[in-house]
Amino acid sequence: MVGIGPGSVDLMSPRALESLSKASVIVGYKTYIDLLGDLVEGKEVISTGMTREIERSAAAIERACAGYDVAFVSSGDPGVYGMAGLVLEMADRDQLSGKIDIEIIPGITSATASAARLGAPLMHDFTVISLSDLLTPWETIEKRLRAAAGGDFVVVLYNPASHRRVDQITRAREILLEHKSPGTPVGIVRNADREDEEVVITDLDNMLKYNIDMLSTVIVGNSATKRLGDFMVTPRGYRI
Fold first, then answer.
1. What letter does residue 191 receive in the DSSP assignment?
2. Which residues are CB-contacts of 216 (< 8 A; sequence separation ≥ 6)?
3. Looking at residue 39, what DSSP letter applies?
4. pLDDT band at 46 (very low <50, low <70, confident <90, very high)
5. What is the model's pLDDT at position 188?
6. Sequence-separated (6 or more) residues with CB below 8 Å from residue 179
7. Rounded to 5 degrees, what angle do the CA atoms 126, 84, 55 make?
């Protein structure tokens, strides 16, 4: 399991690059495979589209059981909304402990890549919540949003909207406004550290005026978060 971060070579760890270099088979979601460019040359590539995660995982396990060195790639970190958990569950189900070696190589997450483009919004306690209700009931997502807002966490929103799923980000904003001021700083980063990157700093009141889709990460500040020029900062509490 290889975390490739945003996908650019300069933000991949040496261990990730070494794993990709050694692998004879590379498995992943088509978009992530495309990000690897020349790194896949001369290798067997197995890629599928969205919602076919179990199929990709099964293919990676099958190749590993056959003796191939497999790099199963995830954007960001494979253990953060990635494929590591699914592969470990499937390997356990099939009683493959001791038959294949599984290594999880971390990567830069969307939360940290986006935060770096905004400044330092994650300097204090924060939580990450996906707004996709494909695998998690929306009632559970709402409960988590209320708990995070009530606890004055900085809130990072993954999968905020898609072509078919447009209402969740509006509802999430409404819930956050139950506990946060309309002037709370909000950062929106689209395609973090990729081509066509877009970075916006706005506030909770105006955030829906900007483009938010599946390629976006939204960071909503806490009660101490402020805008300092072109940066969004959540103070840690130092006296300066």
1. S
2. 160, 161, 188, 189, 190
3. G
4. very high
5. 98
6. 146, 149, 150, 152
7. 130
Q: Taking the CA of residue 179 as centre, how many other CA atoms within 13 Å lie in the half-sphere pointing to its CB? A: 18
Determine the average pLDDT of the residues in 130-143: 96
pLDDT at 50: 81
| Identity of the residue numbered 40 | V
Query: Which residue type is seen at 177?
Result: L
pLDDT at 228: 97
Question: Would you state the pLDDT for residue 51?
Answer: 82
Instruction: State how far Cα 78 lies from the chain centre.
Output: 9
Burial of 41 (0-12, 13-18, 19+ CB in 10 A): exposed
Report residue 189's pLDDT band, with 50, 70 and 90 as the boundaries: very high
Domains defined along the chain, listed by start: 2-93 (3.40.1010.10), 110-233 (3.30.950.10)
Q: Which two tokens stand for residue 233?
A: 């900062």
Q: Which stretches within 94-137 are classed as H helix? A: 110-118
Q: Which two tokens stand for residue 139?
A: 């009632």
Q: Nearest 5°: CA angle at 110, between 220 and 194? A: 115
pTM of the model: 0.94
**Helix residue ranges per DSSP H, the chain:** 14-22, 30-36, 53-65, 84-93, 110-118, 138-150, 168-176
Q: Distance from CA of residue 167 to its chain's centroid?
A: 20
d(CA 210, CA 93): 44
